[in-house]
Amino acid sequence: MQQLVYVVDDDQGMLDSTLWLLESVGLKGVPFTSGRAFLEACDATANACVLLDVRMPGMGGLNVQEEMRARAIDLPIIFVSGHADVPIVVRAFKAGAVDFIEKPYNEQLLLDSVQQALERRAPAVRQDPRLADVQARLDQLTPRERDVLLPLVRGHTNREVAEQLDISVKTVDLYRSRVMKRMQAESLPELVGMVIAAGLVDPLAFRSGT
Which three-class secondary structure state does DSSP give residue 17? Predict the structure, then answer.
């Protein structure tokens, strides 16, 4: 899928220069001069990120961000603003922004941020169709089965899991076999791959040497 950058800024000069910068590195910019127009036209499933100005007439950037969340538009947001006071920056990041860049911006800094946002977005766009099946199986697990699943896929032994949950090793064995059966996993590595693909655990959280 083509990578897109939605650029939302009421300053036409800034909008034009940003589009030119993006096009100079092969990225397609899609311009909007108002937050409302962007919300009505954007594709929530696109391989895209959003460059969003904070202060615009009518609907400001933070309000656009809130409306995106309400509409389940989960595109990475990079705020660009000449008025980056701390409360605004904190509010933006707390609501999920991936970056906040002050105007006038450094061109390379902006491009680096856009590329990182697009890389972050790409896995969600490239989801394996089998992932829905994996998620459905995960949803069928009981709370106790999940309690056993998570430490197991992070590399803990059955005995360590038993100590963590204050149950017997034999009980852990029982739950482990149930989890493998429910998840339709032939091996622990296959189970680990499913859990990582579903985003249930961060690969960096795994124990070294396991």
Answer: helix
Q: CA 40, CA 139: separation in Å to the nearest integer?
A: 33
Backbone φ, ψ for residue 32 (5° rounding):
-145, 140
How far is CA 45 from its chain centroid?
13
pLDDT tens digits along 153-175: 877 889 999 999 999 999 999 99
- Spatial contact of 91 and 62, defined as CB atoms under 8 Å apart: yes
pTM: 0.59
pLDDT higher at 71 or 133: 71
Q: What is the DSSP string of 32-94?
A: ESSHHHHHHH--TTSSEEEEEES--SSS-HHHHHHHHHHTT----EEEEES---HHHHHHHHH
Scored b (16 or more CB within 10 A) or e, 3-24 reads bbbbbbbbeeebbeebbebbee
The Cα–Cα gap between 78 and 82 comes to 13
Peptide bond before residue 104 is cis, with ω within 30 degrees of 0? yes
Percent of the chain with pLDDT over 90: 45
Q: CA geometry: angle at 128 spanning 187 and 206, to 5°?
A: 45
- pLDDT range class, residue 28, cuts 50, 70, 90: very high
CA distance 70 to 95: 12
CA distances from 65 to 3, 76, 108, 171 (A): 20, 10, 24, 47
